[in-house]
Amino acid sequence: MARPPRTALAVPADLLIRASHSMPVRLMEHLLEAGDEAVEPVLAALDRALRQVLPPDGQGRSEEREPPEGEGPIDDEEGDDEEDPLMPLWALVVLGELGDPAALPSLAETIRRGARESYPLPLAAAEAMAKIGPAALPTLESLAADPDPTCRIWAYGVMGWIRHDAAYEFLIQALSRDAECLDALGAAIQEHRRTEAIPLLYEALQRAEPWQRLDVEGAIRDLHMEDDLEPLHEQDWRLRYRPEPRFGAMVPGWPAVAVIARDEGVHRDRDPVPLRSLKEILADVPPRDEEPELCECCGEPWSTGAGVPVCPATAVVVTMIQHAVLGRYRDEYEFDDLFEVMTEVEYDWMEALDRPEPRSRRGRDEREDRLTELHMVREACRWLIERGVESVGGGRAALLAEAQRLAHELGDPEGIFAAREPVKTQGPEVGRNDPCPCGSGRKYKKCCGHPKRAGRPSGPAAHAQGGRGGSGPKASGEVGPAVADVFGSGMPRLSTFDGEPVSFGRAHYRMTDPEAVRDALRSFPDLDENPEDGSFTWFRRIDDDERRVLGGIRLQGDKLTLECMSDERLIRGKALLQELAEAHLVHRLDTAQDPWQAVDEARPTGGRGSGRRSEDDIPPEIEAQLIQKVLGRHYSTWPDEPLPALDGRTARECVKTAKGRRDVAALLQSMDEMEARKPPTQRYDFGSLWAELGIEDLR
Known about the structure:
This protein is an alpha+beta fold. It folds into 5 domains: 1-98, no CATH class; 136-243 and 250-286, no CATH class; 312-410; 444-493 and 616-698, no CATH class; 502-593, Alpha-Beta Plaits (2-Layer Sandwich). The protein is 45% helix and 7% strand. It contains 28 helices and 6 strands. It has helices at 25-34, 39-53, 76-79, 89-98, 104-114, 120-132, 137-144, 149-161, 165-174, 182-190, 198-205, 213-225, 237-240, 254-263, 278-283, 315-333, 338-354, 361-386, 392-410, 460-465, 481-487, 514-522, 567-581, 595-601, 620-635, 651-654, 658-676, 687-692, and strands at 502-511, 527-529, 536-541, 547-556, 559-566, 585-593. A 6-stranded antiparallel β-sheet has the order 2-3-4-5-1-6. The longest helix has 26 residues, at 361-386.
């Protein structure tokens, strides 16, 4: 099926921008979607720009391509602006990604004319030729015959990246005829990862100049060690060709380094290396860094976090700083595209580096802090994009999730994700030797009064939970009488599978285009549509057989409601909606309710025996189902929780021994007895726990 024409192809001039830091990623993606239709317009734009920024080489340019009628890339007035030259780099990148051999003459011309100029243009052209592949070999052979050694180095570099028999054979033959570039030939041959080249390289080493021996020896050793690093041009082009502030341009590959060293005479200043035997060269293997680098502050291995190596003690804080700074760029510049954020950060970074260093110590510290902040947020953007996140909203949600992961893995010394204090209830005075009021049957001093349980919730539910501190209701901090009737004096802390405090949160939206929103939701792989009511289930895939539900999305008329069971999930869910359908959604408000308050409010409000029920009262059988559902979710992790009543071990561990089985059975029996004292609609059946632990025979 023919691709429809794209009007954007009439304005490829946007590729030729006048600031090297501004990479028009979205326009470049648009041109790549057009495929073959984009080749000629981009070539025309490239020819105009090359005429402006690179001097003629005197060896005959390829015939200038005129743009198709009505698709002029730039006008002559712009093209004659010598003080503010155009930037053809992005046109070269697009041609490489398109991979059309029709671009080869212009790419070769860029290398010839820019061989001794600033490296980004010939490097981008060389990497573009490598992406075109074996079809570029005849053009490269012509470049390799150029009298300028820098042209030959670029040609050899591309032949090294094209892992084809013909390219390899050409490089091997060049060893005997291009002594001037033996160092570059060794690096190019090493790219092919063929160990049979080792004796041929060693033979060439005998003829090499003393300053070349170091590079040829390095190629021999790398082949022997079979190191296979990913070439730079195989990285995501949207990140590969971005300017690196320390270089003022993209990161140079080895051909660029070889050309720069040759032009500046660096290679000839090396200390001469004596000839050594092949055995000595192969034995001179540099030590591998098998041990992780340790932080000087805490002595622990560095944490990578969100793209930045940091001390494990500060990993959570650094990630939250990245989260905050990313939000600041959105608030100040109204960006929601991470590529736009990266462009602004890179501009700010290079601008800061260009300023003279402050004289005062305070000024220098502030400058260093600013550069550190810019580095952190830039690496966060790179880290997020590599993981498929390209919006600020989705990025902030991902950073928040990463901070939570780091807090769980490395600790949270700043208490950023610390749980709220448990609800404190006032109870009667209890003697140390009195029966524990929680109903466990133990003495108070050996149960809830034990020092290990100080400050933890009491009651059978607290035993079942392992004594974890919980959070009280959000609304008032008080436990309603109905909930207290169900659970006694102790309130268990409900948490999700990810350890987040349970909170029934909802985000309410108005849809300006319901169908567009529904189509956007259908496009996301982690959302399942329910054909019966049109709602969506949001899930996270654990493995091929297991998924974990994170929330639900209901659509009714022009209203959309996101429902989640924790504040953290609600934040991530809102970020997901923003990323998928922000243009068609208007956020109205968020609501939240504590789970225990929800249970309390779900009970009948009429007086006992009054026979009256309000319109909002829930029937007893529905109430019982609600209680079973809430408690069932809570107790689902009970077998794997460390329990003080079991000396800090889990029930699943204990049932592996006869004594442990009896201890777990005694604990479950005490919990059954407490439930038996409650009204039938309020009881929870622990039968599933008895069965899961395989001790039903002891019940």
